[in-house]
Design a protein that fits this description.
Elements lengths: L3 H24 L4 H30 L5 H20 L12 H7 L1 H26 L1 H28 L4 H24 L4 E2 L2 E2 H25 L5 H24 L5
Antiparallel strand pairs: 1-2
Helix pairs in contact: 1-5, 1-6, 1-7, 2-6, 2-8, 2-9, 3-8, 5-6, 5-7, 5-8, 6-7
Amino acid sequence: MGNSPLIILYGLTAAAANVLGGLLVSSRRLGQTALRYLIALGAGFMLAAVFLKIIPESVELWRGEALTPMLWLLGGYLLIQFFEHTIAPHFHFGEETHEEAMLAQHAALVGVGALLIHAFFDGVSIAVASLVNTQLGVLIFIAILLHKLPEGFTVASMMLAAKRSSRSALLAAFAIGLATLAGVTLVLLFQNVAVYSRPLSYYVLPLSAGVTLYVAASDLIPEVNKREGGIVTSFIVFAGVALLYLTELLLEALHLGH
């Protein structure tokens, strides 16, 4: 329980970024270029975190059973695919442009529901990673924080595209923040629960890896690769990977390796 206050602080910060994203889009204070750069930076950081940190840590936890964490990873990936693009087929990161679809199919509310699931697992990922390894927790917190502003931006723009009020847009962003906190809280409450004699984190860490991989590769990268992004945006993805490496070096210098 020693890390609990810090983990809660991570969750509050991530939730605040959701609300800030909603505030920015409802007041039109964040330009599309700035948002695209932030998405690109977050995508690179998250991809590096998944492949270089979360997956190796998950395999290490399941020594001798490498297939098991990969199955949970696949499950996390498919879970977000189901909620974001099966139930909510018009969902994408960035400013929502499917106004007719939003009105005709009530996709705004469905999209908000999908993002609630997504944000819940953001909170789960932050808490579980922090419980497994201090450095991993910091890296995953940063990775998730980088896409929290676009997440709040997305949910608010969905509501505005559906001709809802700015107040409704802000409330939707606030709900996404609460879902993040719910994920953090549930992990902390059940951190001592064992499943088949293994800690719950053994299962949830690779599951969260699948969720994070989906967000980076299937939500963020397609936004980065749109033609209007240009070569600069693509290079920012690589900068996100480099940022993970630099952050890890800094954490090691601060003796936060475990």
